[in-house]
Amino acid sequence: MPMRRWWDRAQPVVGAPGARGLGVGGEEWLQVARDVAASGGALLSLWITLEDPGTRAPRTDSPSDTAVYCAYLTDHGVLIVELALAPEDEEPRYPGLEEIFPAASRLQRAAFDLSGVRSSDPDTRPWLNHEKPYEFVRVDGEGVHEIAVGPVHAGTIEPGHFRFSVVGEKVLRLETRLGYVHKGIERRFCGLPILEGHRLAARVSGDSAVAFSWAYCQALEGMGGCAVPRRAVWLRAACLELERLANHIGDLGALGNDAGFAFGLAQFSRLKEDLLRAISAAFGRRYLFDIVVPGGMAVDLSQETADALAVTVRAVCSEAIELRGIYDEHEGVRDRFTAAGCLETPLAVRLGVLGLVGRASGLGRDLRVDVPCPPYTELHVARAVQPGGDVAARVAVRFDEVRESGRLLMQLLSALPDGERAVAMDSPADGAFGVGLVEGWRGPVLVALQAGPEGSIRRCHPHDPSWQNWPALEYAIMGNIVPDFPLINKSFNLAYSGVDL
Amino acid sequence: MLKTLRKIASIGLVSEAAPATDELLRVRSALDERITSVLGHALCIRHVDAGSCNGCELEIQALGNPYHNLEGRNLRFVASPRHADLLLVTGPVVRNMEAALKRVYAATPDPKLVVAVGDCGCTGGILGECPASLGRVSSVIPVDVAVPGCPPSPVRILQGILTAISAPA
Ligand code: SF4
Predict the structure, then answer these.
(1) DSSP secondary structure letter of residue A36
(2) At what angle do helices A230-258 and A262-283 cross, to 10 degrees?
(3) Which residues contact A32 (CB under 8 A, 6 or more apart)?
(4) Which of A337, A471, B28, B69 has the fewest beta carbons closer than 10 A?
């Protein structure tokens, strides 16, 4: 039971329930990764201390300051592994994890662009740094040609570049090139007071504002020893489920439209607007930015307001279920959804796919069930799992989650515990470290946070599950035809800003 | 099919009236009145995300829902800047999007209008202070109308578009 050995050696980390941290030496770094993989665990994230903005050299103000970190989801809970890099080493290197967890490759390349610290990964192409032209992998063969799309796309979506290698209409290979909306968010965190960082966290990916700001606050509150009132965590869960609902409803409409059924877009976009207006009436904003704050919630709900919100949620969910019947019976829609963009279970396991995409390929992980934080400990979420791995399976997971979020919201809004909406909290001590982990609508959202002196942030690393799922999209499209790409892409709906940072 | 038709009939028309224009959103008035009145009859819009968090995109997408009835007001999103009269730009402009934004602007035929959407587009906002960001949209291309908000509601964005194509009061 090698995994058990690592877990027993690890020390508790504050923030996410049951999280632990482990410092390792050079060889152990790879051994832990292998043991996590062998025990069915997943790579959640990988990050490195930032280089000094002035000198562009790794920070060396204290020996432990340059380190590479990894977060794993194991059967026991979340494990953070730290590998300290020798400060006297001019060109520190660490063993790459790309052979064990393929998603690590881009994380390592991005980490190099931010920190100047390289892994042993043979792929050394820059990821966030766009100064030089990018070398795409070429596919040779008779009749193979390339289609280049983006960064600016035809619709209202975020920028990224897709390079298809095709024969006729059939896709042989897709390579995505991201980093276009890289802003330097991680470095920006370092200039913010730690008690204000939740505002930036909410804007890592606007469609996941609640998930990121909650994960940030979870880490911070753990470090500060802050006991968040029960009422506040119930309200946070209500906001997180509203965010999940709004995104699923919006995407279900777009998926109908991409399958040639404009009726679906008209209906679901109307439902989404109804939901956003009800959210705005309850919380004073259509999108739930700046509502999860350190110590609790920025806004409370009266029971009357909560009841009014529940009425709309119930109506939206029951109409969505009615529309599911229409989608299911529509032969044209069914035909486009079935077998399109299939990601089979063994491949999903190999790629370490997370969240809703994973659940639609038979991987049952859902943090709300597996490592629940309050109030999910009391809510008994039913996980939505489909084995198919195609667009139809991802649509089915979304419909199932719409129904489940609706049920959770009824429960949350009808029985909000009495008490305060927030308590005051102080900045944590210099050097304190915490981790936050929340099941956002795409999947597990992680925030690793370390406090600096006088209420500042030393390091903040936000991670969106899209990092793991982008490579899976590249596999899912193989063998499909180019005109099916928008539909398959939408069924994943991955973040750009959320990974470009 | 019957269920679909029944649904359409039972929901009926939900489109709402257009908001009034708002002169406070106008940054500059570069086009003459005759041009704006012609553009107002059938305006083609191209959206460009120059570095947003995607919150503003969600509200631009909401412009297309049946309540806001964009096409009913002769406003249409198009796939290429070469077909566009107006650019709707979100986000602070980030370094890796600077060239793409300038290229889109150059590809848009004259006369053209630019509406900057969101606090990030208007002033740089919270994301504009990030080290790989160049700040507000007008630091890279000329802006006619700026719609603040984080994100601005679809009605506010629509107001910004209608202000851009109306003659200055
Ligand atoms: S204005 Fe707000 S919603 Fe829009 S891109 Fe900026 S941070 Fe996101």
Answers:
(1) H
(2) 160
(3) A6, A22, A24, A70, A72, A79, A81
(4) B28
Q: Do A329 and B55 touch (CB under 8 A)?
A: no
Complex ipTM: 0.91
Say if residue A398's pLDDT is above 50: yes
Could you identify the residue written with the tokens 């009061």? B169
Give pLDDT, residue A308: 96
pLDDT for B141 = 94
* CA of B96 vs chain A CAs: smallest distance (Å): 5
Q: Inform me whether the C-beta atom of residue B3 falls under 8 Å from chain A C-beta atoms.
A: yes
Query: What is the set of domains in chain B, with CATH numbers?
Result: 34-164 (3.40.50.12280)
Q: Where in chain A is the domain with CATH 3.30.460.80?
A: 2-119
Give one DSSP letter per residue of A66-128, joined into a string.
SEEEEEEE-SS-EEEEEEE--TT-SS-EE---TTT-TTHHHHHHHHHHHH--EES-S----SS
- A304-341, pLDDT tens digit by residue? 999 999 999 999 999 999 999 999 999 999 999 999 99
Task: Give the Cα separation of A478 and A493 in Å (integer).
Answer: 17
Beta bridge partners of A177: A161
Nearest CA of chain B to the CA of A13: how many Å? 29
pLDDT, one tens digit per residue, over A9-42 is 999 999 999 899 999 988 899 999 999 999 999 9
Backbone angles phi, psi at A447, to 5 degrees: -130, 120
Q: Tell me the CA end-to-end span of chain B in Å, nearest whole number.
A: 49
Across the interface, whether the CB atoms of B55 and A276 are under 8 A apart is answered no
End-to-end, the C-alpha distance of chain A in Å comes to 37
Task: Give the contacts of B116 (CB within 8 A, at least 6 positions apart).
Answer: B27, B89, B122, B136, B137, B138, B143, B145, B146, B147
Q: Measured from the CB, is residue B150 less than 6 Å from ligand 1?
A: yes
Q: Tokens representing A200? A: 């930036």
Structure tokens at A80: 């953070």
Assign domain A2-119 to a CATH class: alpha beta
Q: Nearest 5°: phi and psi at A405?
A: -65, -35
Residue whose C-alpha is closest to residue A450's, from A183, A174, A197: A197
Q: DSSP letter for B110, please.
A: S
Q: What are phi and psi of A439, to 5 degrees?
A: -80, 95
DSSP string of A282-313, one letter each residue: HHS-SS-TT-EETTEES----HHHHHHHHHHH
The H or E element spanning position A466 is helix A466-476
The token pair that represents A363 in the structure block: 């991987």
Angle, CA A347 vertex, CA A346 and CA A352 arms, to 5°: 100
